[in-house]
Amino acid sequence: MSTTWKSSNQKSVSRESANQATNNTISGRTLTSSSSSWSRQQKLAMVASFTLLAALLGVSACSKQSPKPALVGVSSSAATSATPAAGANLTTISDPAAVAASTTPAKKTPKKHPANVTYSDTNYGVSFLYPRKAVLTSGNKTQLELAAVGDVPMNFIEPGGVAVATVALPNSSYPGTDLESAFFNVNVNRSVSEQECSHFALVDTRNADGEPVDAEKVKIGESDMLATSTFNASAIRQLETQYYHRYENGACYEYVLGLSTEGFATEGNVQHVDRDAVFAKLEKILATVKINPVEQDDVAEPAATTMTGGK
């Protein structure tokens, strides 16, 4: 019995010792675990800080080395959509034609001159447009220039007319034809009345009676005028003229449209010029005529000038 008791007592003591040791062990582990857990959190925080710092330094280094934008935080779809655009830019830049076009300076567009030139006479207030390539003569030389195509007299019933200006179309206007010259002429006579201005002195040689042809009322542009025509022919030249009268500024303004042809149109390949086409071109000049009011006391003889519009 005593042996059994001892054994139980020993067992109790042993259990108590074991429990105490276990408690001490658990407590020690708890303290040790708590201490170890705190150290790991510090370590993780430090590692995370170094990792973030390293990442920032890496991004900064990449941004300095390459102009490409950082792909951090960019979705894969955005990166995919940006790739073709970049490729397209590279293709455009690498295209030789595009590079040449970007480096070649733009060519200067040549300045275009207007087809018509304006003539203006302040003495008689007359102005009109005429083709740039035509030759204009004004002043005292006007009648001398007309002498080259024959006698083209003024058609007033009273003397006192003054030649103001003449426009001659280029000889090359109708190549391959018998046209010798075509012209537009302006004359002014202040010695006739408005009633006298409505009459013409010249007789058309086609009129068998030898009397002046009755004037015809016509409208050219915005102006009402009186018109007649004459025709003179010889073996070497035919001259046809159309006369227009209009009374303004206390004077009779006379406009002459004329053309002359050479008398060997049947030789070789020379063709007869289309007279209607020539007169239509001259009539376009007449349609642009404008008369501005002037004081009769200010009228003076126009100076002799010659102008060409070839340039």
Overview of the molecule:
By secondary structure, the protein is of the alpha+beta class. The chain has 2 domains: 2-103; 116-308, Protein Transport Mog1p, Chain A, CATH 3.40.1000.10. It contains 6 helices and 11 strands. It has an 8-stranded antiparallel β-sheet. Strands 1-2-10 form a 3-stranded antiparallel β-sheet. A hairpin with a 4-residue loop joins strand 1 (116-121) and strand 2. The chain is elongated. It starts with a helix and ends with a strand. Mean pLDDT is 73; it is low at 1-14, 18-37, 68-83, 85-93 and 301-311.
What keyword list fits this structure?
single chain, Protein Transport Mog1p, Chain A, 2 domains, eight-stranded antiparallel β-sheet, three-stranded antiparallel β-sheet, 6 helices, 26% strand, disordered N terminus
Major beta-sheet overview: 8 strands, antiparallel
Counting helices, strands and paired strands, the structural category is alpha+beta
Strand content: 25-35%
- Count of structural domains: 2
Structural shape: elongated
Mean pLDDT: 73
Helix content: 25-40%
Per CATH, the class of the largest domain reads Alpha Beta
Q: What would you report as the Rg, rounded to the nearest angstrom?
A: 55 Å
In short:
With 311 residues, the chain is α+β, with helices and mostly antiparallel strands. It contains 6 helices and 11 strands.
List the helices and strands and how they pair.
Elements: H1 2-65, H2 76-94, H3 96-103, E1 116-121, E2 126-131, E3 135-138, H4 142-146, E4 161-168, E5 179-189, H5 194-197, E6 216-220, E7 223-233, E8 237-248, E9 251-262, H6 275-287, E10 290-291, E11 305-308
Antiparallel strand pairs: 1-2, 2-10, 3-4, 3-11, 4-5, 5-9, 6-7, 7-8, 8-9
